[in-house]
Design brief:
The structure holds two protein chains of two kinds. By secondary structure, chain A is of the alpha/beta class. Chain A contains ten helices and ten strands. Chain A has a single domain, classed as P-loop containing nucleotide triphosphate hydrolases (Rossmann fold), CATH 3.40.50.300. In chain A, a hairpin with a 2-residue loop joins β9 and β10. By secondary structure, chain B is mostly helical. Chain B is built from twelve helices and two strands; from the N terminus they run αααββααααααααα. Chain B has a two-stranded antiparallel sheet with strand order 1-2. Chain B is globular and about 80 Å long. The two termini of chain B are 47 Å apart. Classes of the chains: A alpha/beta, B mainly alpha.
Chain lengths: 263, 288
């Protein structure tokens, strides 16, 4: 972000308390306590294996699909502890969408990709074709993809350029009005131009959505996020306004990492 | 600089020799197929006619056709597949899409692998003990169920393989928009693995049609004057027919024996060809 942050709000989209997570016997997250502000872009950085992707996946509980995972502690999304028993995972994932490292459009048409979430969540037959069309159009417009694909909506999505595929993957989260968008290294499969396009898009989506982005690219974290979290070995080392983390880190570890001495 | 050293020359000649050896082995697979098919067809040619596939056997199998055997094989294979396919495919979907790695899954997988390795004659004995015991006498139903037990583990294995070939990224994408496992399977996994599943199932048709042992004691008979009227009837079957006329000590003319073999082979090839066509069709619809 080159513009200044909107100033601190007291609203947090995500708050974790004493969050611990084990893969089998291996503890990947240790006593994580973090508060992520609403309507800004927060980046998660740290060396490989530090737990940043694991933490990201806790926020919509998709970790649990990856085998033997034990989680303890609180994760509050919009004030609600998502590990409470009355939480429905489909409803949670409606509010908290995820974008992956490699664009993963489904092997169906562009239109169907965006409408897929509606199909998954809506009562069959409850949406008219026109409502669906409108939802698809506005989602594609929101990610700045509409003009490029409006004449090829029924072509397969896997034929798009990678950068367009990634935009499509963001667009397909939008019809159900998510609050939070999680991005797991969304640009690592893209070239410089694609990366720029996605970063531009993030700055457009900012404010309307809370964005959390995991990145290996420190320059990206620096230019594209408002706040930055530095993680090491399953713990949060530092969390603050991005420029502070980069220019005036409180911890030696952070300083060494952001200056490229390891990682 | 950059000139051939003796070491490089030796490497190159070994390279050429190994390639030739492996290629020759691969090519040699064509020989038995051509010989078998050619020999069978040549020997069977005099007897092959419309009558041969549409008439009943006459004069103690020495003349006439083999219609009841074709019909019996058709019924047995169709019923066994109708039973084995849904069970096998659903079980494979469970194992690949739902099951976690726990003792139950491991036991089921172990059972599938071992069941696949059981010799067909043992399946036959199991069929006698289980199905014939229930039906009271050998019949098409008992034979079909025995064949189904025999083909099930292979259908499960091939279906699992087809499902596993669908990239994980598609499932992740589905879960992350809140799709349930069933929605993921229904909208993404199954449509994209259909070709592989069908291929696996259809290949079991040829196996079920060709096996003699499992139906020997469970429902196939040496000779029957009429076509089966219900699944509780016994019936002739191609593989059984071939076995019995070939072991009758030269009373049945060779041409009839070879003719039966060609019909069986033809049916199996036709089924496999269908499998290939279906696979091509579904692959062309695949979208990644």
């Amino acid at each position: 972000m080159t513009t200044e942050p909107n100033g601190p709000t007291d609203q947090y989209s995500i708050e974790t308390k004493d969050l611990c997570l084990w893969y089998g016997d291996f503890q990947a997250l240790i006593q994580v306590r973090v508060r992520i502000r609403q309507g800004i872009i927060t980046s998660l950085i740290g060396p490989s294996g530090c737990g940043k992707t694991t933490l990201l996946r806790c926020f919509n509980r998709v970790n649990e699909r990856y085998g033997n995972v034990t989680t303890t502690g609180d994760v509050r999304v919009l004030g609600k502890n998502i590990y409470d028993e009355d939480v429905s995972l489909p409803e949670l994932r409606k509010a908290v969408g995820m974008v992956f490292q490699r664009p993963n459009p489904l092997p169906i048409s562009i239109y169907e990709n965006v409408a897929f979430q509606l199909k998954v969540h809506a009562e069959p037959g409850s949406l008219s074709k026109r409502e669906r069309d409108q939802a698809v159009e506005s989602a594609l417009k929101e990610v700045l993809l509409w003009d490029a694909v409006k004449d090829s909506l029924h072509k397969k999505a896997t034929g798009l350029q990678l950068e367009e595929q990634q935009k499509l993957c963001i667009a397909r989260l939008l019809p159900l009005k998510p609050q939070v968008i999680l991005m797991d290294e969304p640009c690592s499969a893209l070239d410089a131009r694609g990366t720029e396009a996605i970063e531009d898009l993030m700055s457009v989506l900012r404010e309307r959505y809370t964005i959390v982005i995991v990145t290996h690219n420190m320059a990206q974290a620096r230019r594209a996020s408002d706040e930055c979290i530095y993680m090491l070995l399953g713990r949060i080392v530092e969390h603050g306004p991005t420029l502070d983390v980069f220019l005036r880190p409180n911890h030696k570890d952070t300083e060494n990492y952001v200056e490229g001495r390891y990682g | 600089m950059f000139t051939e050293t003796p070491l490089v020359r030796r490497k190159l000649s070994i390279e050429a020799a190994t390639k030739l050896a492996f290629g020759a082995m691969a090519a040699s697979m064509i020989v038995p197929l051509v010989l078998i098919v050619g020999y069978l067809v040549a020997k069977a040619l005099p007897v092959l006619s419309w009558e041969f596939v549409s008439a009943f056997p006459r004069s103690n199998m020495k003349a006439g056709g083999i219609l009841p055997a074709i019909a019996g094989t058709f019924y047995m294979v169709a019923i066994s597949l109708a039973v084995a396919t849904p069970i096998g495919v659903l079980a494979a979907v469970y194992l690949n899409e739902y099951a976690r790695d726990n003792w139950f899954t491991r036991v089921v997988n172990l059972a599938v692998v071992n069941l696949a390795g059981v010799p067909s004659i043992v399946h036959a004995l199991f069929g006698v003990g289980a199905f014939v015991f229930v039906t009271g006498k050998p019949c098409i139903l008992a034979a079909s169920l025995t064949l189904a037990i025999m083909t099930l583990p292979v259908i499960i294995a091939s279906t699992k393989q087809a499902l596993a070939a669908v990239p994980m990224a598609f499932r992740e994408a589905c879960w992350n928009v809140g799709a349930s496992r069933w929605q993921t399977i229904r909208h993404i996994v199954l449509p994209n693995s259909l070709s592989g599943i069908l291929t696996g199932v259809i290949l079991q048709v040829s196996r079920a049609a060709g096996e003699t042992a499992p139906i020997l004691f469970t429902g196939a008979v040496f000779f029957r004057r009429e076509l089966p009227a219900s699944v509780l009837d016994q019936s002739m079957a191609l593989s059984m027919h071939l076995f019995s006329i070939a072991t009758q000590g030269g009373q049945v003319p060779e041409t009839v024996q070879y003719g039966t073999a060609v019909v069986l082979l033809g049916l199996v090839l036709a089924v496999n060809l269908t499998a290939i066509c279906l696979r091509i069709y579904f692959r062309s619809r695949k979208k990644w």
